[in-house]
Amino acid sequence: MNRKQRWLEILKASTKLGLTSFGGPAAHIGYFRDEYVHRRKWLDDKAYADLVALCQFLPGPASSQVGISIGMMRGGIMGGFLSWLGFTMPSVIALMIFAMLITSGSVDIAWLQGLKIVAVAVVAHALLGMGKSLTPDVQRLMIALGAAIAILLVPTAWAQIIVIVLTGIIGFLLYGKDQAPEAVKLVLTFGKKTGLAAWGIFAALLIGLPLVRPFIESSAFAIFDIFYRVGAIVFGGGHVVLPMLEREVVPEWMTADAFIAGYGAAQAVPGPLFTLSAYLGQLMSGAGGVLIAVVAMFLPSFLLVIGTLPFWSVIRTKPGIQAALKGINAGVVGILLAALYDPVFTSAIRGPVDFAIAIAAFGMLVYLKLAPWKVVLITALLGALAYAL
């Protein structure tokens, strides 16, 4: 099979996943394993588990980064891009259209209330799942609770960055003597020099964009800076991006209601939750805003994957790295807990009826185990009825 055939194969496989992968990051990891490990046999279970570990270690959307990594192993950097494109574009297009309908007034405000309510259930469900896996002992539970209290008392984007750094230090101190697992050697078409270049670009943009922004009066530059910065520093996946983005775009670019409605709509489409950037970009600056926001949001993921893959076999064996990650992951749970209250709960729940609908949606997700898109549609209908009454 030549290179172009491999690229086409990657695009077909990832587009199929982009159209059918409902259920969030944990479900995406399962879909990827079925498609790439079992069905196509592009890699074995041990290598796949190592890639998942890498992408959980990095900031950004873990499921998207797993797909990008597999694409790069299969077809080089272009393979990684095509893997991302197929997995991401279906939900980008859907959320862009939804934002256009909102700005044109074609979406009834009653339905928006339902979408805001379902966000409460979805974030609570994500918090429950992440809490079980990332805070399995008292020490990490305390880290999570401390992080939540800090974020609620100091609700700023910089506070979240400081919390992530501090929880990493605490994790290193508590778990530094734990043994790290052995790593699998990954086969790549690029080496450490390319990796170092990617890290250089990543750092230059992360540091340089905020420094230059005050001197450039351009909405396009501001959008790129916002979404690149958030995409570069958010740990824990799509749900954790919610509070960071909310503080960047509300109320300067949109209302809290419009923001939470988009988050609710993002639950009804397949693919990564980071495609919320398409919805926000459309509201901020039309089709051009969509392109800038989506590219900026996912660019750090590409640079981090390219930069880290050549070194992962060495990094993975460092107990200190694993220890810091344990603390950071617990801190992420705390950040998500704070987000469940503000902005999600405070924006969506107006009274007992709304809270009752949110509880029902949570039950459908956790106990009836309905697909998220079904829960979104049912809750949107219930929210619309409650708003009408």
UniProtKB/TrEMBL annotation:
Localisation per UniProt entry: Cell membrane
Write down the InterPro entries for this protein, in alphabetical order.
Chr_Tranpt_l_chain, Chromate_transpt
Keywords attached to this Swiss-Prot or TrEMBL record, sorted alphabetically, are: Cell membrane, Membrane, Transmembrane, Transmembrane helix
Keyword Transmembrane carried by entry: yes
Q: What membrane topology is annotated for this entry?
A: Multi-pass membrane protein
Which positions are tagged coiled coil?
Answer: none
Q: Which Pfam families match?
A: Chromate_transp (PF02417)
Q: What is its main location?
A: membrane
Q: Where are the transmembrane segments?
A: 81-103, 109-131, 143-176, 196-214, 226-245, 290-315, 327-349, 355-388
Q: Does the keyword Transmembrane helix apply?
A: yes
Secretion signal, residue range per the UniProt entry: none
NCBIfam families hit by this protein: 2A51 (TIGR00937)
- What family is this? Belongs to the chromate ion transporter (CHR) (TC 2.A.51) family.
UniProt-recorded name of the protein: Chromate efflux transporter
What's the name of its gene?
Answer: chrA
